[in-house]
Amino acid sequence: MIEELARLARRDGPVTVLKQGRVLVVRAGDVVVKAHPPDTDEHALRARLEAAGNLPGVMLAPLGLERLDGRLVTIWPAGEALTIADVDAGTTPWEEGGRLLALLHARPAPPGLPPAGGPSRLPRAMADLRAAGVPDAVAAPVLAAYATLPPARDGGTLTHGDWHLGQIVRHDGAWLLIDPDDLGGGDPAWDLARPAAWYAAGLLDPRDWERLLTAYLAAGGTAVSADDPWRELDAPARALTVQLAATAVATAARAGDPPDDAAMALVSACGRIVAAAKAET
Amino acid sequence: MQCPKCRGNMRTFDRNGVHIEQCDNCRGIFLDYGELETLTRMESQWAQQHYAPPPPAHGGPAWGGHHGGGHYGHRRNSWVGMLFSS
After folding, report:
1. Which CATH number is correct for A2-77, 3.30.360.10, 3.30.830.10, 3.40.50.300, 3.30.200.20?
2. For residue A96, what are the contacts with CB-CB under 8 A and spacing of at least 6?
3. Which intervals hold domain Transcription factor zinc-finger (chain B) (predicted)?
């Protein structure tokens, strides 16, 4: 499949596999080719690609959509992605992330765009947790926190749906959001909820969190209120904490490893969510 | 001892373990070797005790955790992968 994908790129140059899992992502020359999961909804993907193509300066626009062995394949200009070296060197462009999300949230959601994919990731993560054979003592706080979560708020704001540091690239000198697979109408606070959950778990340096949030608000971001961002962030950040904890402990269990300190920081945060929910009732 | 600047008389004081000479005439101060470093160290200790880091500008949730600084700084755990994955 890798060779066939590279052929779809119609480019000379070295072929590199960037990601291999539910999706297969291959770089060939100056383009990136992505084979989407076999169960991808074509109608929804087409609507998302069209939306991404109409967000100049905010999102990377696709070059094409093809089909290969029954799978949908999208073709993209290759951007320059962030790496762990950027994180280690302290050169992560948190401000750019905040600015781009604010710009995205300011745009109207085109009619016909499906709901953003963020909230639907949580039940999938919980199913992973239950199936992975995680020890009861580790799984219990995550399951208990899940039971306290309020239902996700609906919303019609244009929302990325799956934002993390792998979702910005530099292309022609400008930073852009990539990957519209979860793009849709939703509660935009979900786009900030993953870093908010990292911060609340004690994983993300408070200074980095402030850089992201300050830049988001300075760029006119509307997902959260400037005087009390946690009013809107609290519920989605709790949901993301549970989701990240479930994914982290399930991944460790599948690898036969005990959960590491980052996973346990998220499990501890789940324990605090349960305590906070008890105190609120 | 004579002041190297105005030739006035210098008197010795001890201030919190730092040995200083001050000129009676021009009030200039002379420090012995290493005493400037001692003062700098004492100043930074004082500052640490008196200026706690400011609270985050945008607050945090009621269930927020402790930022111990560096506990999760080791890049070999799953944290750094989490920054880049769904």
Report:
1. 3.30.200.20
2. A168, A175, A215
3. 2-40
Q: Evaluate whether the domain defined by A82-280 bears CATH number 3.90.1200.10.
A: yes
Sign for the CA dihedral angle at A136, A261, B75, B67 comes to: positive
Q: What is the DSSP string of B67-82?
A: --SSTT--TTSHHHHH
Query: What pLDDT, in 10s, does the model give residues A127-155?
Result: 999 999 999 999 999 999 999 999 888 88
Domain ranges of chain B: 1-49
Largest CA distance in chain B: 74
In B57-83, which positions are buried (b, 16+ CB within 10 angstroms) versus exposed (e)? ebebbebbbebeeeebeeeebbbbebb
In angstroms, how far apart are the furthest CA atoms of chain A? 62
> How far is A185 from A105, CA to CA, in rounded Å?
10
Residues A236, A159: Cα–Cα separation, whole Å: 13
**Chain A contact residues (CB < 8 Å to B):** 82, 84, 87-88, 121, 162, 164-166, 196, 198-203, 205-206, 209-210, 213-214, 228-230, 233-234, 237-238, 244, 248, 251-252, 260-263, 265, 268-269, 272-273, 275-276, 279
Residue B40: band (very low, low, confident or very high) from pLDDT cuts 50, 70, 90: confident
Inter-residue contact A35 to A18 (CB < 8 Å)? no
Query: A125-134 burial, b for 16+ CB within 10 Å, e for fewer?
Result: bbebbeebeb
What is the CB neighbour count within 10 angstroms for residue B2? Answer: 10
- Per-residue pLDDT tens for A82-104? 998 898 888 999 999 999 999 99
Local confidence band at B37 (pLDDT 50, 70, 90 cut-offs):
confident
β-strand pairing of A24-28 with A31-35? antiparallel
Name the residue facing B77 among A209, A238, A262 (closest C-beta). A262
- Give the type of residue at A153: R
Interface test with A, best of B63, B79, B80 (most A CBs within 10 A): B63
What is the Cα gyration radius of chain A? 19
Domain coordinates in residue numbering, chain A: 2-77, 82-280
